[in-house]
Each structure stands twice: as structure tokens, then as C-alpha cells.
Amino acid sequence: MKIALIADIHGNLTALTAALDAMRQDAPDQIICLGDVLVTGPQPQAALARVRELGCPVIMGNTDEWALHPKPFILRSQADQILYDIELWGARQLIEADKTFIRTFLPTLTVDLGHGRSLLCFHGSPRRNTEPILATTTDNDLAEKLGDYQAALFAGGHTHTPLLRRFRNSLILNPGSVGLPFFMRTDGRRVNPAWAEYALVTAANGRLDFTLRRVPYSLDALRAAAAQSSMPHPDAYLADWISGETA
Which segments of the chain are extended strands (E)? Predict the structure, then answer.
């Protein structure tokens, strides 16, 4: 069995298309989306529609949940205001059929990997979709976040950072972000490289294999998508982006 894990698309259909195109060569038996499908990017409704076409299980991300019932942000800066404007715009693109689809998203999903092992999927942690699991999360904190759940492999998104770490006799996997793979440079600048991240999990003959993928795509195509959309602050959205091939 080969499973492709995608997460944190954030309304970037350009990145999602690149990931799915690359994934055809991987030929997964199943795709699972770990949530945060639509808001933040220039193509919220189109990204949601593409995920719906996949017919795959989708986990409820924190921004997906927020988009159903948008609440005001705590605004501490102009950057907060810009992000709020963009995310509210994305939420307002939804029609009732989109909201109906989002309401089918799952809090967690368990997948049988055979040989008495299972995969547990979630967004942030099994208990909350806003709760991050990081490389620096202590084992004690991680034990609290995983609670009584048992699995050979735990998989979540939310942090936008690829991760594979061991916890006791289990493994924790984060595929990274399809549509918003930001990181901080040493000079303190936040950047978004134009690459789409995803992961592959292969379970065969009692063995588990993991692959983290990174697929560059055209930054010009993302710029064109932002320009053609009606999203507010397109220049501010694009300001952090750099070419995925030179990052």
C-alpha cells in the first residue's frame, strides 16, 4: 500500500496542481489531505474544488473550520490586518455547496497499514487542529498531545514544516506544506519558496518506507493567479515568495 499525504494547501491551486502532477509518477493507492485547504491564497474555491474531485479523505484544518464561521483576528500590526483581509476574502468565496463539503472533513482518520499497524491522521494534533507538533516538542508534551491514541505512524500538518521523528515505538510524520511552505532565513526574513511539499508512505511486507517530496513550480504562474483573482493585497501576498529552484 502506498499513501500520499498532502497538507496546508491554503488556496494555492498552482502548487496543488504541481504536486498532483508529480504524484502521478508515484502512483499512490490513496491520497489523504491533512487539512487547511482553502484560505490565504488566491484560488480558495478552485483549490477546494480540486480536492473535492480527488474524492480523498480530508482532515478538518483550523483554517477550514474558521472559514465556515469567520471570526475577527486580534490585530497587532498591519501584517495582521492584511492576513485577515485575505483570509476573510477567501472565506467569502464559498458557496453553500462548498460549506457542505467542508463539513464532511474529519477530525481524525485511522488507516490500517497491515501487520497490526495503523496510521492516525490529524491536522495539528489528535486532540486539537490548532495544536502544533514540532521537532522541539518534548516527549512529555507529545505524550499529552497524543493522549490515548495508539498508532505505528502519526501524521499531521499545521506547522508547514516537514518532519519525521520517533516517539517511543511510533513515528511522527509531517509532509510539509503544499501551498505555503514558509521558513525563516538566518537574517530573520520569512520567505515562501515556490515548491510544493508532500509525503509518501509505503507499507509492504511488514516494512514502512517514507519519502518527503519537494516539487518546484513556476512563480510566474502563481503571480498570474494572484493578479487574475480579486484577492485583496496581492502585492503583499506575493512579497514573501521566491523561486523554488533558487531557494
Answer: 2-6, 30-33, 109-114, 117-121, 153-155, 163-167, 170-174, 183-184, 190-204, 207-216, 241-243
Cell reading at 156 = 499531521
Contacts of 145 (CB under 8 A, 6+ apart): 125, 126, 127, 131, 133, 137
How far does the chain reach from its first CA to its final CA, in angstroms? 33
Domain regions of the chain by residue span: 2-110+178-243
Distances (CA, A) of 228 to 46, 179, 225: 13, 18, 5
Strand, coil or helix: what is 10? coil
Q: Determine the topology of domain 2-110+178-243 in CATH.
A: Purple Acid Phosphatase; chain A, domain 2 (3.60.21)
The answer for residues whose C-beta is within 8 angstroms of residue 149's C-beta and 6 or more apart is 108, 120, 126
Per-residue pLDDT of the chain (247 residues; tens, 9 = 90+): 999 999 999 999 999 999 999 999 999 999 999 999 999 999 999 999 999 999 999 999 999 999 999 998 888 889 899 999 999 999 999 999 999 999 999 999 999 999 999 999 999 999 999 999 999 999 999 999 999 999 999 999 999 999 999 999 999 999 999 999 999 888 888 899 999 999 999 999 889 999 999 999 999 999 999 999 999 999 999 999 999 776 6
From 53, 56, 51, 11, select the one nearest 30 (Cα to Cα).
Answer: 56
DSSP 8-state code for residue 12 = -
